[in-house]
Every structure is written in C-alpha cells, then in structure tokens.
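Why do we care about 3D structure at all? Because function follows from shape, and shape follows, mostly, from sequence. That is the central idea of this module. The next example makes it concrete: a single protein chain, its amino acid sequence, and then its structure expressed as tokens.
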Amino acid sequence: MGRITVSRRITKVVVGESERRVEDVLAVEEPLEIRLGGKPLSVTMRTPGHDVELAAGFLLSEGIIRDGEDFRGAIHCGGPGTGGQANTYNVLDVTLTAGVPLPLTDISRSFYTTSSCGVCGKASIEAIQTISRFDVSADPVQLDADRLATFPDRLRERQVVFAKTGGLHAAGLFDAVTGALLVVREDVGRHNAVDKVIGWATLNDRLPLKGTVLQVSGRASFELVQKAVMAGIPVLAAVSAPSSLAVELAESSGLTLVGFMRGSSLNIYARPDRVRSAPTAG
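And the structure:
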C-alpha cells in the first residue's frame, strides 16, 4: 500500500524573524484508476488507503452496484507502463458478481474525477442524477440538536492524518439515536472520504444506512447529497455551507441537510423536523 504521508523540507517564514528550513508532513495525493473486469472506468486523485472501500462506495453511489453482494472482489495490479511487473497500488481492478451488468458510458458521462470536485467532467446535471432504491424521506429518525452539534468536534478528534498534515477532509458515520461514531475515513477529496465510508457500509452489509448521520468536514455539495441518498442516509451534516443545488436535491429527496455548524449553532436547510431543538424560553 502506498504512503499516506510524506516529509518534505520547507522554508518556514515568520514575519520579523529569520527564515529557517524545517521538516513538514504532507498528505499524499496519488491517482487511483478503477477498472471493471480489466477495463478502465474512472480515475480519481486520492489519499492511498481503503482503496477497495473507495471503489465500492463509488460504484454504489453511481448506481453500478446495488449492494455488497454485487461486489465480488478487487485486486491492485501493475500500473500503465510497468508491463504488469510492478505493482504501483494505483490501479484497482474490480470484479463484479456474475450477472451484474457493466455500466454503459458515453460522451455525456465521463467518470474522470479530481480531489476537489467529484462531478467535474460530467456534461450535465441530468447525467448524474441516479435514482436511489432507498427512500430516505420515509426514515422516521430524529435526534437532538445538542447531540448533533457535538459531531464535528468528535469527527475532528478522530482525524489522525489531518492532525499531522492539516490537509485532509474527513467523513464520519454516526448512529443518530445513540450518537455512536461507527466509522471515520480521511482523504484529500471530500467525495473520496464519503465514498470510503459508504464503501465500508456496502462491504459490511449495512445498507441502507437508516437512522444515521453522515458528518463531513467541509461543505455540502450536490454530489455528497446524492451519495447520501444512494446509501439510504437520512441526515447529512456539514461544517461549512451547502450549495443551492445540494439544498434542492435534499428537499426533493427528503434528506435532512445541515450546514454552518459552529459550536452550538447550526443551520437546517431541508427536513428540519428530524432535528429536535430545545424550546425557546418565554
């Protein structure tokens, strides 16, 4: 497996002091090519680690697989130009269960992604709106606002690599009723971190993710709402703001969307009925 962090000599500058050379720790960013049956499907820039979960989550989010039973296995193989002799751990060949149809791609739907935008290259919104088989609008889960407000700090406490580098996004899955933190994944790409969480759930036969909250360290994009809906997650909470399209998709899907989480304050952009707040005095 590739390295998650690397050390580099940098020049440290503090205004009014002499510059100095110091060691700094950086998060690794490398390409991962996902193949299906030996044929290239997608390339994403990611932090190495949990690659199989990343692939499973991506395939589930894109509607290519329905659950873990559709995912037969995956193996890292030699990268381009290696003649198959060297394993770069940057190519993952996925095998689907017999009978699972392969995706039909065309010029309107490119599976190239980057660490900053998982939907870059897709020609239109219509091309990425995949219908989920899970109805998150019917999930009756409710949780207290004071418990929800603790999730960002609890997620941050588990961001091991972020503490060293300051350069990774994180996604954590919480049980909405008990507040238990079920899994945390980090990556240079926020969509990759979410795919790793969803992939973990897919491979561990936990779909749909009823009664859970997906907490993310950054903003809430259309794509992250789509991924949550595809996995049957009823609540998506983000430290930063959502986009207008994310709110529209959350409203139409019946997903509770929370953003701008700052201490005891948070904004609810869709389905506020799931979040119980303390009654106003007076």
